[in-house]
Write a structure and sequence with these properties.
There is one protein chain. With about 325 residues, this protein is of the alpha/beta class. The chain has two domains: about 30 residues, no CATH class; about 280 residues, Nucleoside phosphorylase domain (Rossmann fold, 3-Layer(aba) Sandwich), CATH 3.40.50. It is about 30% helix and about 20% strand. It has a five-stranded mixed beta barrel. A hairpin with a 2-residue loop joins strand 3 and strand 4. The protein is globular and about 55 Å long. Bound molecules: the ligand O=P(O)(O)O[C@@H]1C[C@H](O)[C@@H](CO)O1 and guanine. Guanine binds next to strand 5, strand 8 and strand 9. Its EC number is 2.4.2.1.
Amino acid sequence: MVNGYPNIKINGTTNGHIHKALETEYGHRYTYELLLETVHYIRNRVSFTPVVGVICGSGLGSLADCLVNPIEIPYSTIPHFPTSTVKGHVGSLVFGHLSGLPTVCMKGRFHYYEGYPLWKCCMPIRVMKLLGVSHLIITNAAGGLNPSYKVGDIMLVKDHINIMGFAGNNPLQGPNDERFGPRFPPMNQAYNRDIIQLAKKVGEDMGVENRIHEGVYTCLGGPNFETVAELNMLKMLGADAVGMSTVHEVITANHCDMEVFAFSLITNECVVQYEANNEPNHEEVIDVGKQREGLLKQLVSELLKRVFENGITSGKIGK
Ligand SMILES: O=P(O)(O)O[C@@H]1C[C@H](O)[C@@H](CO)O1
Ligand SMILES: Nc1nc2[nH]cnc2c(=O)[nH]1
């Protein structure tokens, strides 16, 4: 292996040039060494090692306001970082302490529909891992497919359906660098079960257990919202909520052995009947995020406190 690329000869290219040949074939991926440059830049600006990472979904950037003594670094100033282009995604890393724990929040994520390939959307997850993050909380705004879900409910993600992956689009596609993780990572225990149980308990203690569900998330490429036929198909497949993110992030985080907890804020009920005349829109998505920010901040802070009090590391059966 040379920097995670197989040490083989393609079209007579010498080993010295193999890297470039594969870059052309697979796109210009971030090598381990390149990401170390990003990490080096950040470490020079932040004096502590974050152990918790939080990805703020659409309209949920205010989760970063929970951080004590925040240090904000705009993505545009960080070497090799993509930039955020979506309303409701500010585009900065915020470092600080959350429930006493050293934390980094991504105030804004990258989506496939912005034109970024999945490996680029997921680059910050590997950066967080290299910085020291062991526990990743992924949040998103999603449409509720399960008829029992109401706008403003929270779905704790217990599993996902990787629709884009069905067609071979996966953030781990291309040469594998074992320093990040294995070529064939398992995904059947992708979401830490102990943290899900703890989150349900926190919800009970907050008196909002009737607004909290456990369900299956699926991600489409976007940016358009779904047709009625697509939504009915996704329902039949077993999805409870649909969005445009998270799945590829969860795959990348599991690949590099992070503990993952994810939840969706249900910002709209999916329209699964042709007779209905309501249509989803991004403004509504952001508004619901604002309405529920207090609840979500409390949930995340209390959950993190308990995760570390209980010493939850692996939520995998038998580990
Ligand atoms: O970043 P997330 O997944 O929270 O954002 C969802 C999906 C689209 O980006 C947007 C649609 O309103 O919300
Ligand atoms: N794909 C998708 N993403 C969303 N994000 C927020 N609501 C929705 C939705 O209904 N569909």
